Automatic annotation (TrEMBL), chain A:
The lineage of its organism: Bacteria, Bacillati, Actinomycetota, Actinomycetes, Pseudonocardiales. The chain crosses the membrane at residues 20-40, 60-85, 97-122, 134-154, 236-256. Signal peptide: none annotated. InterPro entries: AA_ABC_transptr_permease_3TM, ArtM/GltK/GlnP/TcyL/YhdX-like, MetI-like, MetI-like_sf. It comes from the Bacteria. Belongs to the binding-protein-dependent transport system permease family. This is Polar amino acid transport system permease protein.
UniProtKB/TrEMBL annotation, chain B:
Residues 5-249 form the ABC transporter domain. It is found in: Cell membrane. This is Amino acid ABC transporter ATP-binding protein, PAAT family. It is a peripheral membrane protein. It comes from the Bacteria. PANTHER family: AMINO ACID IMPORT ATP-BINDING PROTEIN, GLUTAMATE_ASPARTATE IMPORT ATP-BINDING PROTEIN GLTL. Belongs to the ABC transporter superfamily. One of its GO terms (molecular function) is ATP binding.
Length: 266, 263
């Protein structure tokens, strides 16, 4: 019996039928949903087309991008500082950084944004000027987003630091660097490779998170879409405009992330 | 007496574990000292304490008549500022078991980083010196390679060049060949032998008894956190006075590969 087995033809198990079965069900469900939405009499595609490239929406995208990059900038600078403080041998600096992260990560982002917007209620003047003249909705939005993001980025950057072997710092110290120098010149650049994938993810979260500033009229894409549908009542059409733009921006960010990671790996 | 490296009464504990229990060591300018002993005897900790990578519990380190890491004030030794510690460390170069080359920098940049960033010297002059150093350790053609592109032996030779670039008074070697494949040990030892012949002051923690016999002026045997025996290399290695030294040497000669394998 065994002698003759090698002469037999090999036949793969048939998954064909079941694969097509599940596939067909999926296509049917998704297709039905799409057709229902697209052909709904309550959704006016002409309005979607009309507003997709309109001035308020384009301006809103500008503000969304400005907020995203400002948040990333504030978050990175402050986050790196916090990460270094947590690493430092000074217990006060370490505790201060840990406290910051605890607080700003623990309080919901919307609460923080609304708080900065209403800072005048706590401090009517800021020494040199009226608080409300300084804290514009845009600045309140930047502060709320940036300070919140710094707490997350601090932890991500600290994780990157921990991934750098201790011997790298030893070597830096033996060529006469101080600990702070070693962190800046040796540890920080080496941790970038570890941090970058998480950073790309964070960028996308920030980009979408900027829509929360609509609660204070921050002027971003979501704010502008709301303002438009507040006047013409085309809520779904304008939410679709915003959805389309967010997806376009996130897709571009994803492509950028892949290029950055390839560059860092090289 | 002036110059050289003096370690006096070094004590260091990690929790309940006493790693150094009062170690004295004198290294004269131009002298090569090999420190041997079983693993866990405190040899590596001795080097790490010597350049203040680990703070001491008691005792002091002096290099070129400069106190390392501490300054005497009102009857006590106070730990110096980061900046002063860093400056005192400049007098000592260190070569690690795991090489510890900066993994994001080329071989050349590994060597030039200290002189340019720390000593703020002229980059063109530093680069010329660095290329000379690479040639001296036999790696002239490898200047632009990253550490990951070099073999262990080549990485360790770059690490030696990096230490030399700072023109230290003393070079400390922490088991420089223990992490190397056997066929790569020779090339690193050859470079170290060359340095010794040119009069470099060296403290070498090693399991290479053959190297110690050939190159060292003085051999120090450490066990259990103390110096058990030290003296001229030939005397200590051939006619050890202590039974513990004799036992260790016999063991290493019987199982050379075992003593070089572990970390």
């Amino acid at each position: 019996m065994l002698d003759s087995l090698h002469t037999l033809e090999v036949v793969r198990r048939k998954t064909f039928v079941s694969r097509w079965g599940t596939g067909a069900v999926l296509v049917a469900v998704v297709g039905w949903l799409a057709v229902t939405v697209v052909t709904s009499p309550n959704l006016d595609w002409v309005v979607v087309g009309e507003y997709f490239l309109s001035t308020p929406i384009i301006e809103g995208i500008g503000t969304t991008l400005l907020l995203t990059f400002a948040t990333l900038g504030i978050g990175l600078v402050l986050g790196a500082a916090l990460a270094m403080m947590r690493q430092s041998r000074n217990p006060v600096a370490g505790a201060a950084a840990a406290g910051y992260i605890w607080f700003f990560r623990g309080v919901p982002l919307v609460v923080q944004i609304v708080f900065w917007f209403n800072l005048a209620l706590l401090f009517p003047t800021l020494g040199f000027a009226e608080t409300n003249a300084v804290i514009t909705p845009l600045l309140a939005a930047m502060l709320g987003l940036g300070l919140h993001e710094a707490a997350y980025l601090a932890e991500i950057i600290r994780g990157g630091f921990l991934a750098v072997p201790r011997g790298q710092v030893d070597a830096a110290l033996t060529i006469g660097m101080t600990r702070a120098q070693a962190t800046r010149v040796i540890v920080l650049p080496q941790s970038v490779r570890v941090i970058l994938p998480a950073l790309g993810n964070q960028f996308i979260l920030i980009l979408k998170g900027t829509s929360l500033v609509s609660v204070i009229g921050g002027g971003d894409l979501m704010t502008r879409a709301q303002q438009v549908y507040g006047q013409n009542y085309q809520v779904i059409a304008l939410l679709l405009v915003a959805t389309g733009w967010y997806l376009i921006l996130v897709t571009i960010a994803g492509i950028g992330q892949r290029f950055l990671e390839r560059w860092a790996a090289a | 007496m002036s110059g050289g490296l003096r370690l006096r009464g070094l004590r260091k504990s990690y929790g309940d574990l006493q790693v150094l229990r009062g170690v004295d060591l004198d290294v004269e300018p131009g002298e090569v000292v090999c420190v041997i002993g079983p693993s866990g005897s405190g040899k590596s900790t001795l080097l790490r304490c010597a350049n203040h990578l680990e703070p001491l519990d008691a005792g002091f380190v002096q290099v070129d008549d400069v106190l390392v890491g501490y300054e005497p004030r009102d009857g006590r030794l106070h730990e110096s500022s980061e900046r002063d510690i860093a400056r005192a460390r400049l007098r000592m170069g260190m070569v690690f078991q795991q090489f510890n080359l900066f993994s994001h920098l080329t071989a050349l940049r590994n060597i030039t980083l200290g002189p340019t960033r720390v000593l703020r010297r002229d980059p063109t002059e530093v680069e010329r010196e660095a290329r000379d150093l690479l040639a001296r350790v036999g790696l002239a053609g490898h200047a632009d390679k990253l550490p990951a592109q070099l073999s262990g032996g080549q990485q360790q030779r770059v690490a030696i060049a990096r230490a030399l670039a700072m023109k230290p008074a003393v070079l400390l070697f922490d088991e420089p060949t223990s992490a190397l494949d056997p066929e790569l040990v020779g090339e690193v030892l050859a470079v170290m032998r060359g340095l010794a012949e040119q009069g470099m002051t060296m403290v070498v923690v090693t399991h290479e008894i053959g190297f110690a016999a050939d190159v060292a002026d003085t051999v120090v045997f450490m066990d259990d956190g103390v110096v058990v025996e030290s003296g001229p290399a030939e005397r200590v290695l051939r006619y050890p006075e202590s039974e513990r030294t004799a036992g260790f040497l016999a063991h290493v000669r019987r199982h050379p590969e075992k003593e070089t394998d572990h970390a």
